[in-house]
Amino acid sequence: MKEFDYIIIGGGCAGLSLAYELEIHDKLKNKTLAIIEPRGEYKRDKTWSFWKVFSHNFDDCVKKNWINFTINTPNETKYVDCQSTPYQTIDSGRFYEKILSKLKLNKNIQFFKNIDEVDKSDSIIFNSVPNFRNNQGKLWQHFYGVEIETDKDFFDDEIFNLMDFACDQRNRVHFFYTLPFTKRNALVETTWISELNNENLEDYEDQIDNYLGNDLNIRNCKINFKENGAIPLFRQEPINNSKEIFIGSAGGMTRLSTGYTFLNIQDQSRYIRENIENIRKAKPYKIHKKYDFLDKILLRVLKNNSSDMGNIFLKVFNTKPKTAINFLSNKSDLSEDIKVILKMPKWKFVKEII
Ligand SMILES: Cc1cc2nc3c(=O)[nH]c(=O)nc-3n(C[C@H](O)[C@H](O)[C@H](O)COP(=O)(O)OP(=O)(O)OC[C@H]3O[C@@H](n4cnc5c(N)ncnc54)[C@H](O)[C@@H]3O)c2cc1C
Prior knowledge:
The protein is α/β, with parallel strands linked by helices. It has three domains: 2-62 and 91-133 and 234-278, FAD/NAD(P)-binding domain (3-Layer(bba) Sandwich); 140-232, Alpha-Beta Plaits (2-Layer Sandwich), CATH 3.30.70; 289-353, no CATH class. The protein is 28% helix and 26% strand. The chain is built from nine helices and 17 strands. Strands 7-6-13-14-15-12-16 form a seven-stranded mixed beta sheet, sandwiched between helices. The chain has a five-stranded parallel beta sheet with strand order 9-3-2-11-17, covered by helices on one side. A three-stranded antiparallel beta sheet has the order 4-8-5. It starts with a strand and ends with a helix. The protein binds flavin-adenine dinucleotide. Flavin-adenine dinucleotide binds next to helix 1, strand 4, strand 16 and helix 4. Residues 9-15, 36-39, 46-50, 128-129, 227, 229, 231, 248-250, 259-262, 265 line the site of flavin-adenine dinucleotide.
């Protein structure tokens, strides 16, 4: 069996981002890399969106940028300008194609379907395969989305809707999310935060039909793409004595209050590349502890006050847009943290801390 300097288990977002980062910085000129990925073919399977709070390697995979968005509850609509940190959507199909065509030029990089096909005894292993055991009672962000095409101009593609809470909540947190790519083409998602133990919440197609027909007033449209998923809003338990370095969702790169992961994966990849010569001894890259602390309190508030969630997110944006976006993208400084915290309903948060 062949030996490799590095092995990446899981060639998804984190595995490929890391391989690409190493490759473009010439870290694989004299080193070998095996990527273990069981999927038969790469095609578009996800739509990754985020506020661009720092530059990344994938601007050419961006499907659309927006500099304005709305959040709405049944009583209020908030318009937010995010000119300095545009919201971007990356098409995973373009992302896979760009990375794979680059990696295949380097003979030191090989793909395998199964880890048993390589000798892993002396390799440095980066593992992105999630293993979320003991998840009873934990919260997930679960969603289903469709990319639709209408037969006439319908959407204002200059502005997207981050969260529409003016919908059936069923004692959980529920909102719709709409990304208009053109006047006739948009991704519309129904998103829940729940323990994922109630199948009644999973009538996603009816929820979307209802929203398209009754809320957006779209009678005729074609569905060009579907995506669904569940993002754990909790951390994977550490695996005892493991020498593997966990990356991506498995490596704690998901922001617990929002599910945003893509840009954290890019930060983690850059950190690993900068420290690759000494990576076994380097401190593991982590999202700053303050965000895990605050997010866990927020999730507890949310569990006990699900109907208030729309108002709580609106309050986050009662600060300057840049402050709120930096906070949600884990790039805020102490003064920005304080500004966001001061907008929160204090008694509910204090109760959960106690
Ligand atoms: C539908 C969807 C939409 C999302 N949208 C956003 C978004 O808009 N913004 C954002 O920031 N985050 C988003 N996320 C969260 C996060 O960015 C993604 O989940 C991202 O793909 C995580 O990257 P990853 O590499 O950790 O996991 P994945 O991309 O899932 O990669 C894991 C890889 O491991 C492979 N694998 C599985 N089992 C094995 C095995 N036994 N051996 C080897 N390989 C294996 C899988 O085939 C896969 O390729 C979304 C998640 C989902 C599911």
